[in-house]
Design goal:
- By secondary structure, this protein is of the alpha/beta class.
- The chain folds into 2 domains: 131 residues, NAD(P)-binding Rossmann-like Domain (Rossmann fold, 3-Layer(aba) Sandwich), CATH 3.40.50.720; 183 residues, NAD(P)-binding Rossmann-like Domain (Rossmann fold, 3-Layer(aba) Sandwich), CATH 3.40.50.
- Helices cover 36% and strands 14% of the residues.
- It has 12 helices and 12 strands.
- Strand 1, helix 1 and strand 2 form a beta-alpha-beta unit.
- The longest helix has 20 residues.
- The protein is globular.
- The two termini are 25 Å apart.
- Bound molecules: (2R)-2,3-dihydroxypropanoic acid.
- The site of (2R)-2,3-dihydroxypropanoic acid (DGY) has 6 residues, from loops.
Length: 325
Amino acid sequence: MKVFITNQIPETGIQMIKDAGHEVTVFPSEQTPIPRDVLIENCKKHDALLVAGFAKIDEDFFLQCPNIKMVSLFSVGYDSVDLAAATKHKVPVGNTPDVLSKATADTAFLLMLAVSRKAFYNYKKILDGRWKQFEPVADLGIDLHGKTVGIFGLGKIGFEMARKCKAAFDMKVIYHNRSQNENAERELSAKYVSFDELLSQSDVISMHANLTPETKGIFNKDAFAKMKPTALFVNTGRGNMHNENDLKEALDNATIWGAGLDVTNPEPMNKDNPLLLYPNVCVLPHIGSATQETRNAMAVLAAQNVIAGLKGEKLPTIVNKEVYG
Ligand code: DGY
């Protein structure tokens, strides 16, 4: 059968699909994100779709591409797919959970630490020739030791972030989630709190929830106003969960202390975005899972989903399990 991949992924995944006897077409990376019409035209001629990067998969897609038998996402997030439509059209959708949890949490931790020491700004000072002498009171950061980290969405990635914060800085862990996480409460002494308590008690808020209608734009003016003026906001989930203008205003008014973003709204962030010059802001270009080991593991899992789906078997990591009745 024929498999269409929207972007170059690690070769190991592509080879696995070929070894299973399928024909693979990879859309060239230089032209991504793939235009909608190109995606549809290609998918009309293929049996499976592997999405690496952003592509909206909605009802219209399934209507126009009835031959697509399965969709494999090269990501843990599945907010780009209308799952109800996929299920209605009997298309199983797979993602790549677990294998990227540690790497993504590492990125959240990296941003937290970088913001706390104004690291990107201080690096730019060297590039700009502004490192003249030792300055006892210039561009000081804040300590993280013994502070409180508030995890918004304590699933696998949130758990890894909480664990690192506790191990490295003996941070107290509080969290807000759809349901209580007993494992985190037992292993990390994490405490479940209301959303308002998370906002008012956290020294660092780290975002790990899925993007849903409930979480879209949840970090807005009202939310930032309830945070501590010394608080750091870290988002490695989805840029659509915070309102960028409200975040900028909160930083301008010293309503919060700093922000670390691996995801932005919109994405990619424009190179002229003023946030890039703020001393207390660190931005990365959505590199959460970008290590060789993790991307290889994601490619293997995404390929396993394709191979199973084309055999008519249950996907190893299925997102819309209702599709199996
Ligand atoms: C994920 O795995 O969801 C990453 O954010 C890439 O989309």
